[in-house]
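Hi support team,

I've been running sequence recovery on a batch of backbones for a student project. Most finish fine, but this one hangs at about 90% for roughly twenty minutes before it completes. I'm not sure whether the input is malformed or the queue is just slow. I've pasted the structure tokens below so you can try to reproduce it. Let me know if you need the job ID as well.

Thanks,
M.K.
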């Protein structure tokens, strides 16, 4: 395959080849490094091995990040299973080299009968045409096919779309097409030959089709303003009483934070949380908000900063915990803030994130909707200052798409302590509410509480691939000992 990359590419551009082995069990890495060392390829060859499988979409993300980091102008996606001809690369490059084109797709359907002559099974031809017709109808496009694995992208176009928020699954290709369309970027198709041999297909066709249908419907419905998915977004203070003495996100956080920890309280408000952490857990607390706490001594350090302007100018690696308690729903763009927070967490050792918000799916809200009522108020889940309303699912997606993992999700009962005081009645009501949480967290949680951690960034995954590749090359050269294996019995 590598030997078939046409040498004439060097006459139109400075070409390099990247082989990204996604933790395969075959000899891809060894064969590719042998070709790399042989010097038979007239281009620089980079061979990387992911120590952990990232999936079809995840592997592409790393490759595109490599192209962006090394300031390439264009990047070509070419599957390694032999279905697509490397000899066609100059034809795919030609339209994009002239400028004004974000992507060029090699299409097996532009030339009538080409897919059949190339051996594409009948069921795949039918599925391709039916799915592509559906996608064209929903997205109002006229592409001959959406499912080619032979593409050339402008790296500048990739910089402008949030491809890193896309799935790691096989419908990554569909999501990136949707993004190009939403960002109003030009796509050109070029006819290509295809070949189907005895390669193994690892795609579950039914699941893939369902994921594709769901993706385009979400994109379409979002354009009607009926839901929100950050990866398809092309447009891109009040006084509160203490909640630390009864079941609440604040008391839950106090229970979870370890003694003596360094804590960053984003949206610290009056400083109730900071004061409790210092008094009960001996923590060092830095508070951030637009205005200083009414009791300045509540925090060890205060930073005046409007969270709507982004992440505060602090070294986040110095903290053990970052608190986002009842904060995100007040921001003009929680999605952007969470994405910026993930970007700011670059250190190897990352703080634990504790986040909470109201649950719009709470039983009382559903009952109100049942009788035709939806009323904002001065506080509570429908606080008039809220810019977002969340369920467990949508709150999880907010963090998932920004690169966080939810380590723990909890339901929090209603704040009876604020309503009737922190006495026997409120404690009994809270206990009953907590019992109901075991029946249905989504229905009986007044608030949502997440314990989160940042997932590895594309930069760190690329670094791991470099390190693992170097280790494998050294091992193959005999300069490092092979990993020992043992067997029992």
């Amino acid at each position: 395959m590598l030997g078939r990359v046409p040498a004439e590419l060097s006459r139109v551009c400075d070409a390099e080849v990247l082989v990204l082995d996604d933790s395969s069990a075959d000899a891809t890495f060894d064969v590719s490094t042998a070709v790399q060392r042989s010097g038979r390829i007239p281009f620089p060859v980079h061979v990387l091995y992911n120590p952990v499988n990232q999936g079809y979409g995840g592997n592409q993300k790393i490759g595109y990040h490599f192209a962006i980091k090394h300031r390439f102008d264009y990047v070509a996606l070419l599957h390694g299973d032999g279905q697509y001809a490397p000899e066609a690369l100059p034809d795919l490059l030609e339209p994009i080299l002239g400028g004004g084109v974000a992507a060029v797709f090699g299409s097996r359907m532009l030339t009538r009968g080409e897919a059949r002559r190339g051996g594409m099974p009948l069921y795949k031809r039918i599925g391709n045409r039916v799915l592509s017709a559906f996608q064209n109808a929903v997205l109002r496009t006229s592409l001959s096919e959406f499912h080619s694995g032979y593409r050339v992208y402008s790296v500048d176009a990739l910089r402008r779309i949030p491809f890193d928020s896309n799935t790691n699954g096989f419908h990554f290709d569909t999501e990136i097409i949707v993004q190009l369309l939403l960002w109003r970027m030009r796509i050109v198709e070029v006819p290509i030959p295809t070949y189907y041999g005895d390669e193994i297909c690892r795609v579950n066709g039914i699941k893939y089709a369902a994921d594709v249908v769901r993706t385009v419907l979400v994109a379409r419905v979002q354009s009607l303003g009926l839901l929100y998915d950050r990866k398809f977004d092309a447009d891109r203070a009040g006084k509160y009483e203490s909640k630390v003495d009864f079941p609440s996100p604040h008391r839950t956080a106090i229970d979870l934070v370890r003694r003596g920890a360094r804590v960053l309280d984003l949206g610290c408000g009056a400083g109730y949380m900071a004061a409790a952490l210092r008094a009960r857990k001996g923590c060092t607390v830095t508070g951030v908000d637009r205005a200083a706490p009414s009791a300045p001594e509540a925090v060890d350090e205060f930073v005046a900063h409007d969270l709507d302007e982004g992440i505060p100018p602090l070294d986040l690696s110095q903290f053990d915990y970052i608190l986002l308690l009842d904060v995100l729903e007040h921001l003009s763009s929680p999605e952007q803030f969470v994405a910026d927070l993930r970007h700011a967490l670059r250190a190897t050792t990352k703080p634990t994130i504790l986040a909470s918000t109201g649950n719009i799916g709470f039983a009382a809200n559903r009952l109100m909707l049942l009788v035709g009522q939806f009323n904002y108020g001065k506080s509570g889940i429908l606080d008039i200052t809220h810019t977002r309303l969340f369920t467990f699912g949508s709150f999880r997606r907010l963090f998932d798409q920004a690169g966080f993992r939810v380590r723990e999700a909890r339901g929090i009962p209603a704040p009876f302590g604020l309503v009737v005081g922190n006495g026997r009645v409120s404690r009994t009501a809270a206990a009953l509410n907590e019992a109901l949480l075991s029946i249905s967290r989504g229905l009986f949680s007044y608030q949502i509480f997440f314990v989160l951690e940042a997932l590895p960034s594309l930069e760190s995954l690329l670094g791991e691939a470099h390190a693992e590749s170097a280790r494998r090359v050294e091992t193959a050269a005999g300069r490092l000992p092979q990993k020992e294996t043992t067997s029992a019995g």
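--
Follow-up from support: It reproduced on our side and the slowdown came from queue contention, not your input. The first helix runs from residue 28 to 38. No action needed from you.
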